Fold this protein.
Amino acid sequence: MVEPLPHVREIPPYVPGKPPPARPGLTSYKLSSNENPYPPLPGVLAAAEQAVASMNRYPDMGCALLYDALAAKLGVQVDQLAAGTGSVALIYHLLSAYCGPGDEVVHAWRSFEAYPIAVTAAGAAGVKVPVTADGRHDLDAMAAAITERTKVVLVCTPNNPTGPALTHAEVATFVAAVPAHVVVVVDEAYLEFVRMADPVDGLALVRDHANVVLLRTFSKAYGLAGLRVGYAVAAPEIAGALRAVALPFGVSSVAQAAAVASLAAEDELLARVDGLVAERARMVAGITAAGWWVPEPQGNFVWLGVGDRAAELAAAAGDVGLALRPFAGEGVRVSVGEAEATDRLLHLLGSLEPPS
Ligand code: PMP
């Protein structure tokens, strides 16, 4: 028998959001993976199709057009950027570049479920710092959890799956307290959905700190989840390390072309995000009116902290054609999608007893 390294057995499973069960005569909605409900814009689809026509060729490993477009949009240098097969790939790249066996990675919990998977796969030890009762990172506790073994800290804002975002002042104070040799990842997968006072200015953090890495994605606001493309912004030394360990040709030519076209169509895509943010507000108002409480959502999803009733609530939603994402014993995450899906959710919650 060929055995993998012992830590490979310790890797927790990634549970993907399931599609809703088919219900005859009922349109069903997938609210289980924080996807964008809008179909691709025609111009983005056309760019992707054009790239498909050259599928016999490898993609540009240097992602030149994508990096140029991102550098222009963000006002950074091209050597501060690193693209990946979704931002989840960049988490793997970061951890493989900066930590290994015996090292520690501090992150909030519950947070993005890929963190413990990637940390364990890197052979490192995860240090999970519980989020507060209102689903926020406890940054003081996270700072206190840093030891001489800590190599990376993962900060997720807005936090998946609980929803709240941190303020710039909170993150800036935290980063200032982290030793300069520890990499601070600010995972901004849901950045475009944030509507709050003093939002995180990630680019300012990168300007001020050589150990800060921003992770962003085309999967959510830009609606390219199926193509797998995300990017990191950091000091050139970190971006260079991310590029060095990356899977060669990891970002397909179709993904690169669609991402570049999406940046060109940004106004239209961000107008859609505004629509989703308005739908989020309607969802929260309805949930609250039904007597339920949710932590302040700043991403494209809301968190129902129903504890032991998570599986039961997800099953009840499945019966009315809604796929939600249960987290056993903790709660249920609901993505913001179509208005009809929101209506159905609110009707369902109105018929159930809210948690006490
Ligand atoms: N970070 C967070 C917080 C996420 O929720 C997700 C996707 N669910 C990702 C990163 C990864 O997104 P992708 O790999 O599609 O870019």
